[in-house]
Write a structure and sequence with these properties.
Largest sheet: 4 strands, parallel
Number of strands: 6
Number of domains: 1
Number of helices: 8
Structural class: alpha/beta
Distance between the termini: 64 Å
Length: 257
């Protein structure tokens, strides 16, 4: 007879009732969602209970055909790679974005990143896995590695949004999240106004190993936005030099050229 006691569980009803006091918010508009259970909803639930229906329609998804390197939608005449990626060597094999960085995504990511909306990590991880989970499974990744932020920025912000996103993806995909491999050793400052070459120069030596990636054949970097790819490229070069054979990435959004 098994006399071990099961750990105490918070009933779903109580968890849902907490929403009356602390209502969950739609990631797109940042306004409260209707009261109701959400946590057990299947990934492909329609309508998605984590978004207002009208807000969900404002999101633009990255669809084929897209660049095999960065994931940006291809323009007419481009076959496999966009003009940014064609003919340019890279330590990063491919990036899998979920959304195009339109006005709705820009507002949402800003609140996720700068205004304490840490809870947005869950609905976006669910949405990412619903739309691109098969693509992630095909990579046969050993680990998810969130792009680290500098300790000074972490102290100011209180969290790393890429890590929150990665841990939610870990729960859904079963691929372990490792924050202990990379560290951001250089505070690069804002890169919004910099071009691709300037960003790459700014990111030089911005990352280093914290722990050697022993036994990792395929690593998937996780970040919120792919703009020029300089941050992911810098991380990829460090991992490649440490012996990781295949480095890919997944992002919440991808910016237009």
């Amino acid at each position: 007879m098994n006399n071990e006691k099961e750990p105490a569980r918070v009933p779903w009803a109580l968890r849902d009732l907490a929403g009356l006091v602390f209502p969950e918010r739609c990631p797109v508009c940042d306004k409260p969602l209707p009261f109701g259970p959400r946590c057990k909803a299947p990934l492909d639930a329609q309508p998605d209970p984590f978004f207002h229906a009208a807000c969900y329609r404002k999101l633009a998804f990255a669809e084929e055909p897209y660049c095999l390197r960065c994931g940006r939608p291809l323009q007419s005449g481009e076959i496999e790679f966009c003009r940014r990626c064609a003919g340019k060597p890279s330590a990063l094999e491919t990036n899998l974005p979920l959304l195009l960085y339109n006005e709705a995504a820009r507002f949402s990511v800003s609140h996720f990143k700068y205004h304490g909306r840490q809870a947005f990590a869950l609905p976006y991880a669910r949405l990412w896995m619903n739309r691109r989970g098969k693509d992630l499974a095909a990579l046969k990744a050993d680990v998810l590695i969130p792009v680290p932020i500098h300790r000074s920025r972490l102290r100011k912000r209180g969290y790393n949004q890429a890590a929150l996103f990665a841990y939610e993806l870990e729960k859904l995909s079963g691929i372990p999240c490792r924050e202990d491999i990379l560290i951001r050793s250089k505070h690069t400052g804002a890169q919004k106004e910099l071009g691709r070459k300037e960003r790459l120069a700014n990111m030089q030596n911005a990352f280093r190993l914290k722990v050697r990636p022993e036994g990792i054949r395929c690593a998937v970097l996780v970040d919120d936005i792919y703009t020029t790819g300089s941050t992911l490229e810098s991380c990829s070069r460090v991992l490649k030099a440490a012996g990781v054979g295949k480095i890919c990435a997944l992002t919440l959004c991808i910016a237009a050229e």
